[in-house]
Amino acid sequence: MNEAKGHGEKRSRKQEQFIAELLSHPTVEAAAKAVGIGHVTSWRWLKDPAFAERYREATRGATRQAAALLQGAARQAVATLREIQSKGASEAARVSAARTILEMAFKAADVEDIQQRLDTLEQAVQANRRNPQ
Fold it and tell me: CB under 8 Å to 20, separation ≥6 — which residues?
């Protein structure tokens, strides 16, 4: 019985390694090769609901981390655009910077509006669940 547990632990470690490699390789085949598992095994794992959920969680975490890095760089990017817009850059560069600033400002306003609407809908759903008609 200990052998089965040991084998399961090895498989679990391999699966976690495979998930990490999936996040850093362009193909499933390349990730499988990096871990040392076969093509068939990699696809079998990807079809397993528990594995697929762990992989989705890992990709969500990577996406959240990337978004945080982008948000951290956004302030500097806006400052750079404003500098290009106001200083001795070419007219084309200033227009491009101004257009980018305006586009992003409108998109940010849209996202804020959508978030407010979503929050209102979520509050209504929660209120409905607490007080069904």
Answer: 58
Name the nearest CA neighbour of 83 among 70, 73, 97.
97
DSSP-based three-state secondary structure for 120? helix
Distance in angstroms (rounded) separating the CA atoms of residues 96 and 3? 64
Q: Alpha-carbon torsion 65, 66, 69, 75, what sign? A: negative
Is residue 18 within 8 A of residue 31, CB to CB? The reply is yes
Please, what is the angle between helix 49-86 and helix 39-47, to 10°? 90
Q: How far apart are CA 105 and CA 74, in angstroms?
A: 12
Express each pLDDT in 111-121 by its tens digit. 889 999 999 99
Q: What is the pTM of this model?
A: 0.57
